[in-house]
Amino acid sequence: MEEPDNHQMDRNQNRNETKRTSIGAPSTALAYLDPHYWDERFASEEHYEWFKDYSHFRHLIQQHVKPNSSVLELGCGNSQLCEELYKDGITEITCIDLSAVAVEKMLKRLLSKGYKEIKVLEADMLDLPFSNECFDVVIEKGTMDVLFVDGGDPWNPRPATVNKVMAMLEGVQRVLKPDGIFISITFGQPHFRRPFFSAPGFTWSIEWKTFGDGFHYFFYILKKGQRSSDSNGVKDNVSTTTISLFQDELENEDYIFRTNIDEMESQN
Ligand SMILES: C[S@@+](CC[C@H](N)C(=O)[O-])C[C@H]1O[C@@H](n2cnc3c(N)ncnc32)[C@H](O)[C@@H]1O
């Protein structure tokens, strides 16, 4: 994989100076697959928000998540998403992350702020340690994207990538209540995500919205049990076929994360 253009990276990194860490962005997106990378990073980083913060998609969350919803967040990292949900009255929240350091620091942070009802567990989203049908909402922001960093051609991902993504989605479908909702916040465009979301065996309808200026991020809403037998489950969308990359609009690491995918797309 080629390295991203240095000038572009510098510009992007300057933009987020206040969030810079001693470890920061890796030189290759493949590092995002390495649990040690995350542990090391979270040891020194207090807060980093992937794909925009809550204020950018709060209006979308509020349409689908009710105060009495039980919510599972996959790959919380050191994001403030769970705190923001809590402040909006959604108090039954469980966060998981593969990184023990992220979990320990998140617990400490939430306790210090008095959000002691929020549960935080070290767990793998590919093997969810929860019983069937126990959450109203499962949400992930930038976590599923990690599975794609070594996926190869996004039009035809490697079998190992497909297996991991399917294991994740099968787990999500399993832990969702019969009328539960999976929310996925990502820059993964519908033509790449839809084949996974609409795979046989999933019963969710598929809907998406976009948010963000210039570059659009995607907010997918998958409603379990709502796929009609005569459709592929796609209910609603916003036209996305003409979206191009305004890379100046991407946050610094969103750009690096994205680079791998752009290279693969340009080869097609
Ligand atoms: C790109 S960051 C996103 C963090 C956070 N969701 C946000 O919006 O800022 C990906 C996160 O997923 C976690 N992660 C990676 N693989 C995971 C897995 N298999 N199960 C659970 N968490 C995982 C990483 O430790 C990291 O915290």
Automatic annotation (TrEMBL):
The Methyltransferase domain is annotated at 66-188
Q: Where are the transmembrane segments?
A: none
- The Basic and acidic residues compositionally biased stretches are 1-20
Which stretches of sequence are listed as region Disordered?
Answer: 1-21
Enumerate the UniProt keywords alphabetically.
Methyltransferase, Phosphoprotein, S-adenosyl-L-methionine, Transferase
What GO molecular function terms would the record report? methyltransferase activity
Q: Which GO terms describe its biological process?
A: methylation
* Signal peptide residue numbers: none
Q: Which InterPro entries match?
A: Lys/N-term_MeTrsfase_sf (IPR051419), Methyltranfer_dom (IPR025714), SAM-dependent_MTases_sf (IPR029063)
- Substrates-to-products reaction catalysed: N(6),N(6)-dimethyl-L-lysyl-[protein] + S-adenosyl-L-methionine = N(6),N(6),N(6)-trimethyl-L-lysyl-[protein] + S-adenosyl-L-homocysteine + H(+)
Q: Does the keyword Repressor apply?
A: no
**What the protein does?**
Protein-lysine methyltransferase that efficiently catalyzes three successive methylations on 'Lys-36' in eukaryotic translation elongation factor 1 alpha (EEF1A1 or EEF1A2).
Family that this chain belongs to: Belongs to the methyltransferase superfamily.
Q: What is this protein called?
A: EEF1A lysine methyltransferase 4
Q: In which organism is this protein found?
A: Nyssa sinensis
